[in-house]
User: Fold these one by one.
Assistant:
Number 1:
Amino acid sequence: MEIETQYHTEDDGFAGAISHSADIIEDFPEGAEEGTPFQEVFASTPADETTEAVPVEPALHISSDKRMGIHYFPDHKHYGQGALQKWLPAIQSLGVNWITLPAPLDRAIPDEFISGLISSDIQPVLQFDIPLTEEYSVEDFAALFRAYASWGVRYAVLFDRPNLRSQWPGVAWTQRGLVDNFLDKFIPLAQAARQAGLTPVFPALEPGGDYWDTAFLRSALEGLQGRGENELLASLVLGAYAWTRDRSMTWGAGGPENWPATMPYHTPEGSEDHMGFRIFDWYNAISRAVTGSVLPIILVAAGVQRENSQARDAQPVRRAIAMAESLQRAPSDTHNNRVPANVLACNFWLLCAAEDSPSSIHSWFRYQTAKPNQQGEEWLDWNAPKAKSAAVAQPVAAVPPATSSNLSAGSKGITKAQTLAHYMLLPHAEHWPMDTVRSFLESHQAAVGTSLEQALAASRVTLAGGLEAYPDETLRTLIQAGCAVDNLQAA
């Protein structure tokens, strides 16, 4: 494999030297020279004046008082029975309307958990941390996407920080065209998400990173444009990490137009860069330069540093509160203390983590009791005057698994209220017969999930995995509810 010599000095231009390790190979954009400042490169697109502008849809406008969110846990191990009942009151008490949920790759988060959040006016943002080092089946993900979309999920973040060397197998990191290689993986999944009814979110990049994130993002958007992926671009949302790095809340405000001397890997004395809360100003400049318009942005995690090895932010909750106050002001592209309207959500790091997790120092709530710690109390004290009635609502219990003690009660009032045409009932969220589900959904228009309550609302119910996977009481209740029941054996 041919490897091109690297630039790796502090004077590197926008997309020249991508890594100080001399492992990444990327050419400068046409018309840009080594040392070209951000401002000039952003203004130098497209090279071909005859190229048609990408039809980017206007950014969704979210009410300024509904842009705050929280990042749930740093892993996907906390969706079991009782999790919603335990954690929903804590989430509601924060007064948030968004939540980042790390999504398992081999099964779905239970639909009861998802539905409980959505019914509480909290929109999940699913984060699929798909390893770039492994092979995966787009068809398997498509089945997951369809299920999530049928439950009301709208946003799916595909991959995480692909501009880090640690995310790639060694040989792939040294190959020419790393961004193109990433797009080869991203596009099929993004298309599958769109076809399922989800909005694909381009993964949040590590600010800075081994491959400078602004260069990676620009190359990726240009790559999508060059491949004719106009429909995908028109529906795309950008993910971002907004770490404050102990800097002021207005660090880098205004983007490259205000800080034209800043270049990748080099921020001159007296200048500022994108590595702060206002990273969205810089990403907006990139998307505007490439597409002619800004793309919607979701800050999938914001506030303190995510990695335990990095310096911890001072006064993390005070910084989160300052961010929240910026979000709640009327959106503006020109005020440093306000946030542009295309920033849909800012999900603060972190609701909670297990006590043995390195991320536990960032938690706002105690793991064992789901009660606020000192950091959580600071936020609640600030939010108290604005708290919604949901903050004191009774816990919402997740739908329990089918048992003889709860099936009859759960079916009351549903027998003659079927609202779904077809529902595939799964035996357990952790043991999906994925091949069976995928092939079935390819030929049937059916909702899918683990909820007996939703199954009872369907005219026809298909039992995945065979009759033996379900208690007799479940079968009896479905039949008594008037459902036409059939079964599908696992392949």
Note: The two ends are 41 Å apart (CA to CA).
Number 2:
Amino acid sequence: MDFERELTKLGLWRKLMPRDGKCLLNAIVDQLCEFSACSKYVEKLSESCCSHGVKTNAAYALESIKTAKVRSFNSVIA
């Protein structure tokens, strides 16, 4: 998966991704704050960032954002 392309699609630009991943985490938290169920995703993402490498964080973050967006969209439809 091309992480830079996927993050750009989600509005998380390349300039927000330093090698240590800290700005990436902040950008993801900002993105998740748009969703009502964001707190559990932020907690899971924070746990992941403490226990995995940056590439793993990026993969987990992308999945978390996509899941949050799908759930948010489904709740609007329902």
Note: Residues 3-77 form one domain.
